[in-house]
């Protein structure tokens, strides 16, 4: 049995983020999600926020704090892709992805840390990707943004580890989402051949690992990168 916490999941209106929010609700936590549009799953508080805007992030946290209490668990999940080969990648393609995925996570974590320091308790969970360490052709921007999260988690652990705050990274592999469902069947089969498990993950399998990291059982884990990729990125 884990202590009920106030949880904020960024980008919690679809895909993995939605599954994460649903898992925290199922475990009895008070859950808020940020979304640029749409809303989170049933039982969550949805706040409209854009992680590329610090004032928007601040307003979202203020609303969650007023309605659910100080944020004790933050899951930085909001992310975008702009896949294209290096020579075709514009500077904007690169900086937009970094600003959302990496700097956006910095804005969210910085705002969350204020309440966590006061409470001397916090769980920071950054949603990275197997390509953050494995690399991926056509994803120099995305891969760079996702590997950067590891530096945030490890530096945060060194800064705030003595205050009851942990910071960890979860690195999912290929997940069954709308995005992967749109891939041609032969491409899906080719990807599955590279994965020792021979299948894609369900979003719930990622969500359960994240919920466990937020639990009382994971209090002594910090600065870790936990792959949820069926063995795809082993050693990376």
UniProtKB/TrEMBL annotation:
<dbReference type="InterPro" id="IPR036291">
    <property type="entry name" value="NAD(P)-bd_dom_sf"/>
</dbReference>
<feature type="domain" description="Ketoreductase">
    <location>
        <begin position="5"/>
        <end position="178"/>
    </location>
</feature>
<dbReference type="InterPro" id="IPR050259">
    <property type="entry name" value="SDR"/>
</dbReference>
<protein>
    <submittedName>
        <fullName>Beta-ketoacyl-ACP reductase</fullName>
    </submittedName>
</protein>
<dbReference type="Pfam" id="PF13561">
    <property type="entry name" value="adh_short_C2"/>
</dbReference>
<dbReference type="InterPro" id="IPR057326">
    <property type="entry name" value="KR_dom"/>
</dbReference>
<dbReference type="InterPro" id="IPR002347">
    <property type="entry name" value="SDR_fam"/>
</dbReference>
<comment type="similarity">
    <text>Belongs to the short-chain dehydrogenases/reductases (SDR) family.</text>
</comment>
């Amino acid at each position: 049995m884990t202590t009920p916490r106030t949880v904020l999941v960024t980008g919690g209106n679809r895909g993995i983020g939605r599954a994460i929010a649903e898992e925290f609700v199922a475990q009895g936590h008070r859950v808020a999600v940020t979304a640029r549009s749409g809303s989170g799953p049933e039982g969550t508080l949805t706040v409209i926020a854009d992680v590329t805007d610090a004032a928007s992030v601040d307003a979202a946290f203020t609303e969650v704090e007023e309605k659910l209490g100080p944020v004790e668990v933050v899951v930085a999940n909001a992310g975008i892709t702009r896949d294209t080969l290096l020579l075709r990648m514009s500077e904007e393609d690169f900086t937009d992805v970094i600003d959302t995925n990496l700097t956006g996570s910095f804005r969210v974590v910085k705002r969350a840390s204020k309440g966590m320091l006061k409470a001397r308790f916090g769980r920071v969970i950054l949603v990275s990707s197997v390509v953050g360490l494995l690399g991926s052709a056509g994803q120099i921007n995305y891969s760079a943004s996702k590997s950067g999260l590891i530096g945030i988690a490890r530096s945060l652990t060194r800064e705030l580890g003595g205050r009851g705050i942990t910071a960890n990274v979860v690195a999912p592999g290929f997940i069954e989402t709308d995005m992967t469902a749109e891939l041609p069947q032969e491409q899906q089969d080719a990807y599955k051949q590279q994965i020792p498990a021979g299948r894609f993950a369900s979003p719930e399998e990622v969500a359960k690992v994240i919920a466990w990291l937020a639990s009382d059982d994971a209090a002594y884990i910090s600065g870790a990168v936990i792959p949820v990729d069926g063995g795809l990125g082993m050693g990376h």
